[in-house]
Design a protein that fits this description.
This protein is an all-alpha fold and 842 residues long. Helices cover 71% and strands 0% of the residues. Among the domains are: 1-84, no CATH class; 95-193; 416-533.
Length: 842
Amino acid sequence: MSLECGDSQENEKIVTAKRICNSLQSEDRKVRKNAYIEMEKYLSSGNVDFSQQDLKNIFIETYMYTLNGLRDKTEAVREQAINFINFLIINKLPLNDYYLTYIFPVIVERIGSVEIIEESEEIRLQLLQLLDAIIGKYSKTEQLKPFLGDSVIILSETVKDKYPAIKELSNQTIVKLADALPKDFHMQAETLIKPVLTCFTHQRYKVRVEAIKSIGKIILHATYKGLQDVLGPMAERLFDQIPLVRRTVAQVAAEWLLTHRDRYSYFAKVLPLLLTGLNDEVEETRVEAHLLWDKVGLQFQQENTKDLKDQLDYLTTMPKYYPEEHKRPNLGCRTLVQRNVGNIAPALAKELLSWQGDVRFRCSQLLCSIALLAEEGLTMHLQELLPAMYSAARDEDARVVENIRLASELIGLFVPYDTWSQIVLPAVEDGAHYGHLLVLAGLIKGTPKEYIKNYVDDVSKLLAEDYICFGRKKLYQVELMNCVQQVYRKYDSGLSWELTGFNLFKVIVVLMALGDADNHGAIIDDLAKHLGEESGQNLWDMFTQDVLKHINVEPKLWTKTSDHCCVFLTVISECNEAFGVNLEIIADVLEKALDDEADGEQKLNTLYVLSEVFGDKKLIFKNAENLTQFLEKLITDIFVPNLVWHAGATAEAVRTMSAQCLKYALQPTEGVDLFSSSDVLKGVFEKLQPLLLSLVEDASYRSRLLGVECLVLLKENACRKDVWSVEDLGKIYPEVLKRLDDPTDKVRVCALHSLPTLLRDAPNNFKENYYKAHHELIIDTLLTHFDDDDENIQNLVYDVLKVMAEISKRELVKKLERHRKVLRNQRGCDRLMEYTQNFICL
């Protein structure tokens, strides 16, 4: 009776379930939907006790109705059908592949085909969630194994779905499937690679992250070909703008390096994916990458304890000069890179020259990591890396350039000077661009002083070669100066430095001449400090002559932009006290550079600089010897020829600047007796006087003004040597007097300032009555200008007339009395009459 009762109850449960399922045949969608809800309530009711056999029997009797709801034309019904099946399979039914045999074909039909059968994105997501739940429930069971192929078919399509949430979940489900069937997943793993890779470029970063994790799991079960297929796309994700994506790449790479069954064959391929993260711009990524890398190295070290035994036992101390800002990686990390750097270096060198900026940036980061880890193991691969580094050092991206600089310093630290110098210095010698110099500066900076100090002469000599140091491009000059600074910082005080000092000094001076002179003076002072000198002026004193000798090559052929011309002008402008010590060679260069046949613009520029230099004669002639001879040579052999009139605007400007320099040369200088004898001055006077008188009539007002000033200075020198004659005065004063009618006020004022000096201390015979006509000319001309509207002019004329009172008092008084009635400047006349009366009384 009890068995019959049990069978009766079981049949009743099945009948009830089938009765509910009958509603699934209704034409009314609400009825169909409510049928699933009612069925779920019935199976979860606390009033009825369902055994596993009951549930199985109900599934057998109703599955054809319930599963058909997944094909229902109404979306709400399909949604409710999925909810019910999920409830039944996941929550109610025990593990049994029997149920899955009926469910998987329907899921494959709805979302596992190339054509979109299930049009609703939400329903597709629910079906995928159902699959994910099934895989989770049946994980690591034999019941799931027969459905691996169907699961892969479904996931291969859903991972390519347009709906981001489906893509994301598909990748998560792939990871779950791989973990659920660890021994069998390899049979289908590679099928998923291409579909998953389509997510690598999806705009939503969460999809990219999950796809990278998915690929990471797939490759652990795939063959070598699978790894080859994903390395490129994985490397591209290193350029992702989202830090989490880059961090995930590092995590996956670390997992491969730790757990891949054939990882020893793939180390060279996978290492760059993790090592690039060591220098990521985001600190969190860098920290995690370092932790993962340290873990990889420690595992490798443990797996190779026998091979590394000697190093573990004896090489425990930190290398001398190891950079303080870096923590030295463990032995496993270093050995792992050193053993694989031969395979990494060629690819790295190639990618440093990539046309894609992001690739070059990440490769430059990787280079820094490789240089730090490989240490001296990079020695054999410099021939491949350095040419690429030269080019990358010229990158438009400042981050790439900075990484190349850092990598160069690390290479200089670990690779012996003898090794890198044999590759780098010949490359610089064959034709350097600033990329070469940037790398060279980094290598020098990185190399410890102890190992390079004996070679600074060799490096400085190369840098000082004309074909290297005479470069005009700004970036080239910047890096050349950087090289110079790095070289003298490696100088050791126990070594002789004359050769090194001159070479580096020459380069700095050349850069001052051809580039921007700002801050170069400070660099010369810094050079002097490192060489043990008190100041940069000491270097000017020591090396100015050598620099001048070096550039004294055919000055007559120089142009304004000639390298040697620029250096010469810089030297005489900046050498200060050293100028006076090198008068002989300076005069020699000037004589050739200012020759009549020399380039006009170059002559003009040289004279301009010389006039600037002469503006501080006290400083430049402080330590001068044979200064008189030097100035006389300038006047007679250089300035006089250039005062000769020639047509053209350039020639006019040359005359003006020559007159300016002549003015500075003729001005009194403390401790200098300009002309050694009266005969010498007489000869110079005879050459200069006609040229200056001609200059007073020049078209340029500046030339006229300087001509007047030079005539006055010439007169003063002549008086000191007692060669001033009345004939000279008679030739000069009329020309100066004419300048009172000059159209330029500055020239008129200069002439009035100059006349008292010219007329004062006139030769005694000029005061005689014989020269009365001269006196009248001077006085009449001055009285004409005594009525000038400008009060300043009136006062200056008054000063000249006072001097004339000393030369011809009677004539002046007579003229005043005669012209007083017609002169407007009555006050001036009164002052002058009063002065002459007092003067006569005296």
